[in-house]
């Protein structure tokens, strides 16, 4: 089957889509070069991980208003590349600190880098998808966001492979410098997309009005809007399901394997399965599901799979069931729920696309992780088993599915003026 038939791209959209794919590939290439560095820090300092997560959340609460202030003052063609270049400067400073400061400072540099990397991961992705939602219409998003996520998955695979191959060859800390290259490429891709949107014949939406409001506007607008509040609820319920599975994974794999190499091998095989299923689904299935079933059902599929997965874990809390559920859950989250969720922002104003989206994707997301982690720890302290906690998660996943269906109805109502206009 020809590629054009698979991804449903119109002739006039191919050039802009190519720049979007380059942007997605570059951002995720940079992140997955840095992710193993961050994860190694978490393994070495795992006794303080919950405290570090709390610091990440507090930093998010400060970073979101600062980002909102930048968005209100600069056009997207300037602030999107500058966000990426800001992180490039940060990486250069980390590299200098690691090379020049004494070895005794390494522990605190590592902790600061872990917090920074967590903020980086959420903000560069949020800026990318906010930019995409600003450029493409809702109708285009339903067709094109799935193939755009293929670019991000390819970048993730390339970054992981590059790091695995070079970490033992390159001098210490050189990976930080290496990640600067794709970040700069992504800045140029963003500028190219913005220039194309200014063309009278462009298929992209122009930047026809500034992003208004102060530094706290993004937070305020979320709580004023029923639509955005429901998106935030969807994220919170998603993070609860993800955190429960993450902690159950740690418990079951930790009990099954005492050898660190064996655990690492299993994690690598799970990641390979997730990436393979994600790529196939994004490339051949996701766009068709969104077009034929609509936004609501596309958002509800992953929660419905989570209901079945938690029920299976409740009845049979074994490592084999956990691995199957986790691989299915993560791959469908990335392949289906993520691009569908980003379509939700194509029907809101520019302020919501950039400011409220940053608050939802950063503070709400990370806050949901933090709270869910403490809830799981509390349930375990009360004596609940892995199976018992899984069964308690079933109705939460059901509420998550209902929230997705409701969001689909709201998105359709908001999309009607644009569709008919």
Characteristic key phrases:
single chain; 421 residues; mainly alpha; Growth Hormone, Chain: A; 14 helices; 0% strand; globular
Provide the gyration radius in Å. 21 Å
What's the CATH class label? Answer: Mainly Alpha
Look at the structure and name the CATH superfamily. Answer: MFS general substrate transporter like domains
- So what's the overall shape? globular
Percent range of helical residues: over 70%
Question: In words, what does this structure look like?
Answer:
- It is a single chain.
- The protein is mainly alpha-helical.
- It has one domain (6-206, 213-420): Up-down Bundle (Growth Hormone, Chain: A), CATH 1.20.1250.20.
- It is 84% helix and 0% strand.
- The chain has 14 helices and no strands.
- It has helices at 3-7, 14-44, 49-73, 76-100, 106-135, 138-166, 174-197, 217-224, 226-256, 260-284, 286-315, 319-343, 350-381, 386-420.
- The longest helix has 35 residues, at 386-420.
- The two termini are 34 Å apart.
- Residues 1-5 have low confidence and may be disordered.
Quick rundown:
The chain is mostly helical and 421 residues long. Helix content is 84%, strand content 0%.
Topology:
Elements: H1 3-7, H2 14-44, H3 49-73, H4 76-100, H5 106-135, H6 138-166, H7 174-197, H8 217-224, H9 226-256, H10 260-284, H11 286-315, H12 319-343, H13 350-381, H14 386-420
